[in-house]
Amino acid sequence: MTRIVTVGAAQLGPIARNETRSQAVRRMVDLMRQAKAKSCDVVVFPELALTTFFPRWFMSDQAEVDAYFEREMPGPETRPLFEAAVDLGIGFYLGYAELVEEGERTRRFNTSIIVDKAGKIVGKYRKIHLPGHHEHEPWRAFQHLEKRYFEPGDLGFGVWRAFGGIVGMALCNDRRWPETYRVLGLKGVELMMLGYNTPLHYPPVPEHDHLQAFHNHIVMQAGAYQNGTWIVAVAKAGREEGCDLLGQSCIIAPTGEIVAMCSTIGDELIVADCDLDRCKEIKDNVFRFDYYRQPEHYRLIVETKGVVPCP
Ligand code: ING
After folding, report:
1. Rg over CA atoms, the chain
2. Atom 12, ligand 1: residue with shortest CA distance
3. Any catalytic annotation for residue 187?
4. Which residues pair with 260 in a beta bridge?
5. Which of 140, 198, 210 gets mutated to test ligand 1 (max ligand atoms within 8 A of its CB)?
6. Known catalytic membership, residue 120
7. What is the whole-number distance in angstroms between the Cα of residue 128 and the centre of ligand 1?
8. pLDDT at position 1 over 90
9. Burial class of residue 51 in the structure, from the number of CB atoms within 10 Å of its CB (0-12 exposed, 13-18 middle, 19+ buried)
10. Of the candidates 171, 129, 140, the residue with the CA atom closest to the CA atom of residue 56
11. pLDDT (tens digit, 9 = 90+) per residue, 222-232?
């Protein structure tokens, strides 16, 4: 019996700074309804999908920063998403800013969850690769202060049995690092879900701005192929508070082929039937890890953080 999961990539256009969570949730519930009409089992939303991408601003007032975080999930404004999951029989991946009090300590993460068709949270991931910088850098057209506002994730790269297969999660910058895919690949991932907010302008190297779409796809197509997994990657897109964000949300097969891609920079749903058994074409052959990998020669990958100087 084939294991086909019908997956929706639910791209979001801009979320204005003054847009409420309820307004964003209404847009997402509408996309879930569209997904239902296309027989989706699950839909994937972007990273930080409840608010505007607030790390683009330096804020010295922690209370102002914390207003972008969720202290409970679901909370009053996000519960309609969970109710829609049950009503429509559709799971979802949601990216959001998570604030959690641990005794005296307040912890802040760039987080994603997978919710099943019963509206239950089956998995949580906290972003491990935080891009950008810690301090206010006024030379930039806009800031990218994820390293200031979030802690690195402490849950590792996880996989969960859901929708008939082995599913995994990542967030935005994680998709640029091969380690993300290989750890999930070594855990047998068959369907990776990730959201992203990617500005078209990269202040440190503006001469690469025209390559943002190319770099977005090359890393995920490689990751999908080298680990034999489906990847559903979903943008917050368009001109958000004056910052142009990349669209081109897509669904990628284990062969590395893009099987569906958004063609607008607004709210847009694309759908693909993902046959999870097709992962075997790669996992049992060209990238049969247990037969071809030579970990005794890869030690440096986990033993060092930076480059080892050449003598
Ligand atoms: N955004 C960007 C991303 O990795 C970035 C940051 C853009 C890093 C371009 C390097 C080059 O897609 C997030 N939110 O990680």
Report:
1. 19
2. 198
3. no
4. 251
5. 198
6. no
7. 13
8. no
9. buried
10. 140
11. 999 999 999 99
Q: Could you read off the pLDDT of 68-125 as tens digits, one per residue?
A: 999 999 999 999 999 999 999 999 999 999 999 999 999 999 999 999 999 999 999 9
Residues 6 or more apart in contact with residue 48 via CB below 8 angstroms:
54, 95, 96, 97, 110, 195, 197, 236
Q: What is the pLDDT of residue 102?
A: 95
Residue closest to 72 by CA, chosen among 118, 33, 113, 43: 113
Catalytic residue chosen out of the listed positions 40, 70, 146, 172 = 172
Q: Are 57 and 68 in contact (CB under 8 A)?
A: no
Distance CA 185, CA 225 (A): 10
Per-residue pLDDT at 278 exceeds 90:
yes
Ligand 1 geometric centre to CA of 172 (Å): 6
41 Cα to the center of ligand 1, angstroms: 29
Of the listed 40, 70, 98, 127, which one is catalytic? 127
162 in Cβ contact with 3 (< 8 Å): no
Nearest CA to ligand 1 atom 11: 202
Report the atom number in ligand 1 closest to the C-alpha of 129.
15
> Quick one: angle between helices 212-227 and 178-186, nearest 10?
20
pLDDT at 180 over 90: yes
What is this structure's pTM?
0.98
Percent of the chain whose pLDDT exceeds 70: 100
47 is known as an active-site residue: yes
